[in-house]
Design brief:
About 40% of the residues lie in helices and about 20% in strands. The protein is an alpha/beta fold. The protein binds magnesium ion.
C-alpha cells in the first residue's frame, strides 16, 4: 500500500522537501505528489511505494531534528473516532500533582505519578496511594484547579476540527471526572470518562476513588466500545496520549499518536508528536489549514 510522508515544523526549515526526497531515494522511494497542508508549517508527500516506515522516519529525524515526521498508509487517513488522554496530553501537567500541591504534598505525589506514567509501577496501586494522600482536601479545590488549567497548544483546534468533520470525540483519563467535565466542555469533546473521587459529608476528599478505576484496560475497552457504537473498525480510530497507561489504546487504534510522550509510549506508537502542537495530529490525517477550526 502506498504511503504518505507528513513533515511538520514550527516552522519547517527551508529545503525540507529536497532533504526528504534525498532520504526517500536512499530507500528506493520517490514522491509522486506533494501538497502544502499549512504554509511554512506542514507538507505531505505521497510516495510511489511502501518502505520501512520506522527506518525512514528515524533517518528523517536525524536529518531534520526539529521536525515532526510520520510515514503512514496513504489510504484511510481520516479517522472517525477520537479517544484522547487528558493530563500531559490535552492539558499541560498532571492535575493530581496540582491537587497534591494544595496540601503541600506535591513532591511525594509527583514522584509516584512520574514512575506510573513511565510504566515502572502498577497504575491502579499508584493511583490508590496518591488518592489516599489527598484525604482532607476541600473538594472545591478540584474545581478551582479545573478552572485554571493550561491547555496544550492546538488542543481546541484539534478536537473541534475533528468534531466538525463528524468524528465522535471522547476524553478518557486516569485523572478525575470533576476535571474532565470542564476539559470536555472547553475543548468540544462529546463525552468523558475518568475516576471519581469520593467526597465526605464535610465536603472534603475521603482519600478513596470509586472502583473500578479507569486504567489502561479501561482506556482500551473504551476505544473498543466507541468503535462498536460508531460502527467502525479500530483501524478507523485515533488514540492519543503521553503515558504508559495509554499504550494499549494507542497500539490498538488505527492511528496511535504519542504526544510529547514517555519513552515507552514513544517506541510503541505508530506516530509521534515531539516538537510541534496538537494540530499536527490533524496534518497526519491530511487536514489542511482551511479545514482547521479556530
Ligand atoms: Mg497523560
Amino acid at each position: 500500500m502506498p504511503q504518505t510522508l507528513t513533515l511538520v515544523g514550527a516552522p519547517l526549515p527551508g529545503g525540507v522537501e529536497a532533504v526528504a526526497a534525498d532520504i526517500l531515494g536512499a530507500f528506493g522511494l520517490s514522491p509522486v505528489s506533494g501538497r502544502v497542508l499549512s504554509p511554512e508549517r506542514a507538507v505531505e508527500l505521497t510516495l510511489d511505494g511502501e518502505g520501512d516506515a520506522r527506518k525512514i522516519e528515524g533517518t528523517l529525524r536525524e536529518a531534520l531534528p526539529e521536525v515532526d515526521v510520520a510515514v503512514l498508509p496513504a489510504e484511510n487517513r481520516r479517522k472517525r473516532v477520537l479517544l484522547a488522554d487528558m493530563d500531559a496530553t490535552m492539558v499541560v501537567g498532571e492535575t493530581i500533582d496540582e491537587l497534591a500541591a494544595a496540601l503541600g504534598k506535591e513532591a511525594e505525589v509527583s514522584a509516584i505519578t512520574e514512575r506510573a506514567m513511565r510504566g515502572e509501577i502498577d497504575f491502579g496501586a499508584a493511583l490508590d496511594e496518591r488518592v489516599a494522600m489527598l484525604a482532607g482536601l476541600d473538594a472545591a479545590e478540584i474545581d478551582r484547579i479545573a478552572g485554571g488549567l493550561t491547555y496544550s497548544p492546538g488542543a481546541e483546534a484539534f478536537v473541534r476540527s475533528m468534531a466538525a468533520d463528524g468524528v465522535r470525540c471522547m476524553l478518557v483519563s486516569g485523572g478525575f471526572d470533576r476535571v474532565t467535565g470542564v476539559v470536555r466542555e472547553r475543548l468540544g469533546f462529546h463525552a468523558d470518562r475518568a475516576n471519581h473521587l469520593e467526597v465526605g459529608p464535610d465536603g472534603r476528599l475521603t482519600g478513596t476513588a470509586r472502583k473500578p478505576v479507569v486504567d489502561a484496560a479501561t482506556k482500551l475497552a473504551t476505544l473498543r466500545e466507541m468503535a462498536m457504537t460508531a460502527g467502525v473498525a479500530l483501524a478507523d480510530c485515533l488514540a492519543i496520549g503521553d503515558g504508559a497507561n495509554d499504550r494499549a489504546m494507542v497500539e490498538a487504534a488505527g492511528l496511535g499518536i504519542a504526544y510529547r510522550a514517555k519513552p515507552m509510549l514513544r517506541e510503541a506508537a505508530a506516530a509521534r508528536i515531539d516538537h510541534t502542537d496538537l494540530r499536527t495530529a490533524l496534518y497526519y490525517q491530511g487536514y489542511t489549514d482551511a479545514e482547521i477550526v479556530g
